[in-house]
Structures are given as C-alpha cells and as structure tokens.
Amino acid sequence: MPKIALLNIKGEKIKDIKLSDEIFGIEPNNQTIYDAVVLKNASMRQGTHSTKTRSEVSGGGRKPWRQKGTGNARQGSTRAPHFVGGGVVFGPTTNRNYNKKQNKKERRLALKSALTYKANNKEIILVEDFAVDTNKTKDFIKLLETLKVNDKALIVVKELTDNLILASRNLSDVKVIETHEINTYDVMNYTNLVITEDAVKMLEEVLK
Fold first, then answer.
1. Count of domains forming the chain
2. Does residue 87 sit in the same domain as residue 121?
3. How far is CA 151 from CA 39, 147, 159, 176, 194, in A?
4. pTM > 0.85: yes or no
C-alpha cells in the first residue's frame, strides 16, 4: 500500500496513512484516461456554431445578368458561394452531435488510474482538515503556502463551507470541490491534489 503523510492545517506531520491499493496503487490505464478527458472536453462544447448556406442568405433572388450575350459565365444568383456575401459551402451547423459515452466501469478505472499517477508522482497532499476561519483570499493563499502548494491545486473536501467557497473563488489556479464531484479531467488538469482525510475515506468507500 502507498503511504502518505497526514498533515494538519499548519503543515505539520501527524502520522503516516496507508492508501488503498485498489484506488491509488493500480496499473494505470492510459486509454480510459484519454477517453474520459475527451468526453469532458466534448461535453463542454456548446455546439452553437452555425453558418448559412446559399438558400439561407438573404438576397440574391434576381438573376444578376441575362443568360447569354454578356461574355460572362452564366449565373443564377449573387448568393452563390463564389460571390462576396454568398453562402458557405460545407460550413458548421448545429446538427453536429458532440456527445460521447463511457460506461461506469471505464469511468471508475480512469479515475483510479489518474489517482494512481498522482500518488506515484507524490502530488497528493493529505490534510487532516481544510477548515478556514475567514473568507479572505489572502488568508487562503497563506494556508496554501503553509502546505507548500505552489502550483495549480485541486482541493477535495467532504463538505464545502461558505468561507472556503468565498476565499478560493477568485483564484484561477485553484478549484475546490466535494468528494462526489471528483473526476478524471480535474485530477489530471491540476498539478497538486489536496484532499482531506474524510474525503479519502469516502472516496475509497465509493470506488472499491
């Protein structure tokens, strides 16, 4: 079992905690991680991109010049794709479907694989509790510095508090979530995973 130091809010070591091999010590499956990240990115696409074809562009109802005798090529409308202001050929439409699927076992395996990578790279910081007394961002930053969190951080707690939400919301490189919200994309996207002891226990219960 991988071991990790349990820290208090002051960054002092309390004891060593053994993490579950079933969650933090498996053989990582890169394909499921890739699929989970692609699925997450696809689900964030709005799909509202659209262009107009020649039948949808306004105007162009009148034939621009007579069929014969002008020396020009015959044309039926100024809204043909080769005219300025004409329709777009093969442009994007809202009919495209970006939905992707990944079954429950694959999602679990992807999350376990991502957590295993974090454990192997020593990018998990386990804290006894992550309670903040104020809603000041500067106090929150000091707390992260105490825990030696110097890069992008995903903070996972059992339950969110108002102070925690308010103190962290202005930091673009920090995301605070509850245990049930953890996903493969966020684990891979953030360098450090700061997680409370209660959150780890709940995570191990759910993923076993």
1. 2
2. no
3. 25, 11, 23, 14, 11
4. no
